[in-house]
Amino acid sequence: MKLINTIIAAVVALLIVLFAVSNRAPAVVEVWPFPYQLALPLYAVILLTVLVGFIAGIVASWLSNAGKRREMRRLRRQVRDLEESLARHQMTSTEK
What we know:
It is built from three helices and two strands, in the order H-E-E-H-H.
């Protein structure tokens, strides 16, 4: 499995390098409310946009699963309490 992950990572890295080499033309980036302009290579603009979208997706996914994580913590506590209760009950029943 580690070999497959390494091969996939190498292919993705190669594709990113090829993309960067073939998209070196300058692009001017402006953000509307700010008076600043940034001249960056086109590949940097695209890769930064993809990165920002990826991070936004991770944050949105993490926030949307907050309820599930809370429920899992509650269920883990409940299972632990029931296991402790069962262990106590088994100890008292073997003592009799």
